[in-house]
């Protein structure tokens, strides 16, 4: 196990099975892994920051050396503030490489002591991205197997208001008592 703190930064909108796979792999390599969710005021996410944090917390509940946090501004500054020495990022396919390389080198330029470590998620998740999951779910397609069950449920609730209503309407309405004669 690698000594020290690593951060796994991202948008996680929503967390996918690919993200979870990487968190599990990272947690075996690093002493502590901080999953850092970007607070980005420019983008309007599908899931609020609070919702993403809640989902990630539930998903990583069994991983004792993983914690969830948020950050804004430069990722390297945040990494420095929590004394992280590594950044973990996933590479699914060659198409990810160019963007990830650019980002890693830019981060290295700003903070030469922070290393970026790339890991590959399981190949069955190599085509899974949050963007595609959002698109498929929004168009009514199935996302089973692409996201954890809690996320699937949240997507269903968000995209089908009737579903949420159905779930909240299970409370029994108390019957009126008959007036005494
Ligand atoms: O899950 P994503 O959207 O691919 O994550 C991208 C993220 C959040 C890691 C990246 O946009 C980031 O680090 N943003 C923080 C601002 C920053 O440091 N920008 C310079 C990157 S070289």
How would you characterize the overall build of this protein?
With 181 residues, the chain is an alpha/beta fold. It is built from seven helices and five strands. It has a five-stranded parallel sheet, sandwiched between helices. Strand 4 (84-90), helix 4 and strand 5 (115-119) form a beta-alpha-beta unit. Helix 6 crosses helix 7. The radius of gyration is 20 Å and the shape is globular. The model has no long low-confidence stretch (mean pLDDT 91). The protein binds 4'-phosphopantetheine.
**Topology order in helix (H) and strand (E) letters:** EHEHEHEHEHHH
Strand percent estimate? 15-25%
What gyration radius follows from the Cα positions, in whole Å?
Answer: 20 Å
Bound small molecules, deduplicated: 4'-phosphopantetheine
> Number of helical segments?
7
Number-wise, the strands total: 5
* Oligomeric state as shown: single chain
Percent in helix: 40-55%
Helix/sheet category: alpha/beta
Arithmetic mean pLDDT: 91
Reading side by side through the largest sheet, how are the strands ordered?
3-2-1-4-5
Net shape: globular
Q: Specify the biggest β-sheet.
A: 5 strands, parallel
> End-to-end span in angstroms?
78 Å
Low-confidence stretches: none
